[in-house]
Design a protein that fits this description.
Strand order of the largest sheet: 6-7-8-3-9-10
Order of helices and strands: EEEHEEHEHHHHEHEHEEHH
CATH superfamily of the largest domain: P-loop containing nucleotide triphosphate hydrolases
CATH class of the largest domain: Alpha Beta
Number of domains: 2
CATH topology of the largest domain: Rossmann fold
Bound molecules: adenosine-5'-triphosphate
Strand content: 15-25%
Number of helices: 10
Shape: globular
CATH architecture of the largest domain: 3-Layer(aba) Sandwich
Distance between the termini: 33 Å
Largest sheet: 6 strands, mixed
Helix content: 25-40%
Structural class: alpha/beta
C-alpha cells in the first residue's frame, strides 16, 4: 500500500475553481458505470466520473485499487465489462487504442516503452508518424508534393518539444544510454508529439529522485497550462499529486471512494481510512496544501 497523503513539499500553480459543477461542454472525458473483470478478479466496479477540458486530474489509491485498469479503459487497452466511456461527447467504448489516439488520447506507460537503440530525436519522431499526411507513395515525389514542407514543419514542432522538456543536449544520444529520469522525459516528449488533447500519465515520477520529480512536476504543470492539454495522472507521490492536481479521484478495491479538489479529498474520512486504516485515523491526518510565495 502506498503512503498516506501528506503535505505537499512545495507550491505549484493552483488551478481555477475546482468545485464548480461541470457543464456538458466542459467535459472532455466521461466514464459511466464502468466495471471491469478479469476472470474472478473484479478490477473496477461501477466507476463514474467526468474530466473537464484543461483539467489536471489525478487518480490515486492503494496498490491494486484499479488505477491502471481505469487508465487502460480510457486509452482503449481494456474494454469495460460493463459501462461506457465517452471522449469529447462520443461513445468510444468499442474503439481500439489507435482509433482513440487518432481522436486525441495520448499516453505514457508505467514502465518505459522507448526504443533503446534509437536516438532521442527518432524516438520522438516515431510518435508523429500518424500525423503525416504524405506517405510512402507521395514521399517519392518529395520535392514536388508538400512532403518536404511537411517534414520541416514536423521537425520544427519536435524541436519545440525538445526545448520545452530541456533535452536538447541528448537529442542525438541513443535512448537506451540515458539516465532513468531523462528517459522518462523523452517518453513524455514522444507522447506530447502526438499532440493529444488528453494525455494519460502512468506514474510519471516513479523511480525518480527528488530533483527529477520536481522537474517532472513542473513540466506537467506547464504542459497543462501552456500547451492546454488535459492531463490524467496516476502517481504515488501524494505530495506532488495534492500540489499540482485540480481534482483527484480516489479508488479503493476497484470502487470510487472519493473525488474533489485536493483539499476536499484530503479531508474525506473515507480517503483517510483507505490510506491510514481506521485505527490510525487520529494519528497522522493528512495536511492541506501549503502555498509557497
Ligand atoms: N491483466 C490483468 N489480468 C488479471 N488481473 C488483473 C490484470 N490487470 C489488473 N488486474 C487486477 O486488477 C486489480 C486492479 O489492478 P490495477 O493494476 O488496475 O491496480 P493499480 O491501482 O493500478 O495498482 P498499482 O498501484 O499496484 O499499479 C488487481 O487486483 C490486479 O491484480
Amino acid at each position: 500500500m502506498s503512503g498516506a497523503p501528506t503535505a505537499p513539499p512545495r507550491g505549484y500553480a493552483q488551478p481555477a475553481d475546482a468545485t464548480r459543477a461541470a457543464s456538458p461542454s466542459d467535459v472532455i472525458f466521461e466514464a459511466r458505470g464502468v466495471s471491469l473483470r478479469f476472470g474472478g478478479v473484479q478490477a473496477l466496479t461501477d466507476v463514474s466520473f467526468r474530466i473537464r477540458k484543461g483539467e489536471l486530474f489525478s487518480i490515486i489509491g492503494p496498490n491494486g485499487a484499479g488505477k491502471t485498469s481505469m487508465v487502460n479503459c480510457i486509452s482503449g487497452r481494456y474494454r469495460p465489462t460493463d459501462g461506457k466511456v465517452y471522449f469529447k461527447g462520443r461513445d468510444v467504448t468499442g474503439m481500439t487504442p489507435n482509433h482513440r489516439a487518432s481522436l486525441g488520447i495520448g499516453r505514457t506507460f508505467q514502465n518505459l516503452a522507448l526504443f533503446g537503440h534509437m536516438t532521442v530525436l527518432d524516438n520522438i519522431m516515431v510518435g508523429r508518424h500518424h500525423l503525416l499526411k504524405n506517405n510512402f507513395f507521395t514521399g517519392s515525389l518529395y520535392w514536388l508534393t508538400g512532403a518536404r514542407k511537411e517534414e520541416l514543419s514536423h521537425r520544427r514542432e519536435v524541436e519545440e518539444i525538445i526545448d520545452f522538456l530541456e533535452i536538447q543536449h541528448v537529442r542525438k544520444a541513443t535512448a537506451g544510454t540515458l539516465s532513468y529520469g531523462l528517459r522518462k522525459r523523452v517518453e513524455l516528449a514522444r507522447a506530447i508529439a502526438l499532440k493529444p488533447d488528453l494525455i494519460l500519465l502512468d506514474e510519471p515520477m516513479a523511480g525518480m529522485n527528488l530533483e527529477e520529480k520536481e522537474d517532472m512536476a513542473r513540466y506537467i504543470v506547464d504542459l497543462n497550462e501552456e500547451f492546454g492539454m488535459t492531463v490524467v495522472m496516476i502517481e504515488h507521490d501524494m505530495g506532488v499529486v495534492m500540489d499540482i492536481s485540480h481534482r483527484v479521484m480516489v479508488l479503493e478495491f476497484g470502487k470510487k471512494i472519493g473525488e474533489g479538489s485536493p483539499e476536499e479529498v484530503l479531508a474525506d474520512p473515507r480517503v483517510k481510512r483507505a490510506y491510514l486504516g481506521e485505527d490510525d485515523e487520529e494519528e497522522a491526518p493528512p495536511q492541506p496544501k501549503q502555498e509557497v510565495a
